[in-house]
């Protein structure tokens, strides 16, 4: 189970290193600071920079929280296990499931990619693909999305990386879809069936379009499809329910 340890904001990694060194490793599976990839521009280029997802907190995965708590009490650092009333309590199952779906194996939330169509944010790739409903604000210039999630017993603001590749009105997007469908039909009539696997998008903002299946990961339910939507091919990740054989 995942428990949350509060410490000083800005000192999460230092405190984590001390705890790892002083707490018996047999008492826990792992300790980690959840991170996210932030896009930052310096030296005239964009760079990936890892930042703390929840400033002032780190996590411990353990079935022996009482023993861990005793070890934490002996460490000369500010550490406080979050509690539910008077009891030390793990985060809820749905919270842990949410975080696992967002983070990779290194507990890092990768930068997502998407577009803005009218007033809608459409995520084409990355961990936000199945969680765009939590987005409260998108900052295109900072390349980040601001979420609000029910965490730590309250609504908690969180920032994650999001690169918006284009912004279109609803009318522009519908015209683009129509032109793409007409172009695809003409190409199929001229050259016949492509040797690559063709799929059709059944639902979502890209419903009705067709594309080339590039790869699939059935374990993660991620199907990467190339759509000839813009001046250059656009790769979009779908779930298996969103596509069908063309």
Salient structural properties:
alpha+beta, 246 residues
Secondary structure blueprint with pairings:
Layout: E1 2-6, H1 12-22, E2 30-32, E3 35-42, E4 45-52, E5 57-61, H2 65-73, E6 80-81, E7 83-84, E8 87-88, H3 93-102, E9 108-109, E10 112-117, E11 120-125, E12 135-139, E13 144-151, E14 154-168, H4 170-191, E15 198-201, E16 210-217, E17 222-227, E18 234-238, E19 243-245
Structural overview:
- The radius of gyration is 22 Å and the shape is elongated.
- It has helices spanning 12-22, 65-73, 93-102, 170-191, and strands spanning 2-6, 30-32, 35-42, 45-52, 57-61, 80-81, 83-84, 87-88, 108-109, 112-117, 120-125, 135-139, 144-151, 154-168, 198-201, 210-217, 222-227, 234-238, 243-245.
- It is 21% helix and 42% strand.
- The strands form five sheets. The protein has a five-stranded mixed β-sheet, covered by helices on one side. A five-stranded antiparallel β-sheet has the order 18-17-16-15-19, with no helix packed on it. Strands 2-5-1-6 form a four-stranded antiparallel β-sheet, with helices on one face.
- With 246 residues, it is an alpha+beta fold.
């Amino acid at each position: 189970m995942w428990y949350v340890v509060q410490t000083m904001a800005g000192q999460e990694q230092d405190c984590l290193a001390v705890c790892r060194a002083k707490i018996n490793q047999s008492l826990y599976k792992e300790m980690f600071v959840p991170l996210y990839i932030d896009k930052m521009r310096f030296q005239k280029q964009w760079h990936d920079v890892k930042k703390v997802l929840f400033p002032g907190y780190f996590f411990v995965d353990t079935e022996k929280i009482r023993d861990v708590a005793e070890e934490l009490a002996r460490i000369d650092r500010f550490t406080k296990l979050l509690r539910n009333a008077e009891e030390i309590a793990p985060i809820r199952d749905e919270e842990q499931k949410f975080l696992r779906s967002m983070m990779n194996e290194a507990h890092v939330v990768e930068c997502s990619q998407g577009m803005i169509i009218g007033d809608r944010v459409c995520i084409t790739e990355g961990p936000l693909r199945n969680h765009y409903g939590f987005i409260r604000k998108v900052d295109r210039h900072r390349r980040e999305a601001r979420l609000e999630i029910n965490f730590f017993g309250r609504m908690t603001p969180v920032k994650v990386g999001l690169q918006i590749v284009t912004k279109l009105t609803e009318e522009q997007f519908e015209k683009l879809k129509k032109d793409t469908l007409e172009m695809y039909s003409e190409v199929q009539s001229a050259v016949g069936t492509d040797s690559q696997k063709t799929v059709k998008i059944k639902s979502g903002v890209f419903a009705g379009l067709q594309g080339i299946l590039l790869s699939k990961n059935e374990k993660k339910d991620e199907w990467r499809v190339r759509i000839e939507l813009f001046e250059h091919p656009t790769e979009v990740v779908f779930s298996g329910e969103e596509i069908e054989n063309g």
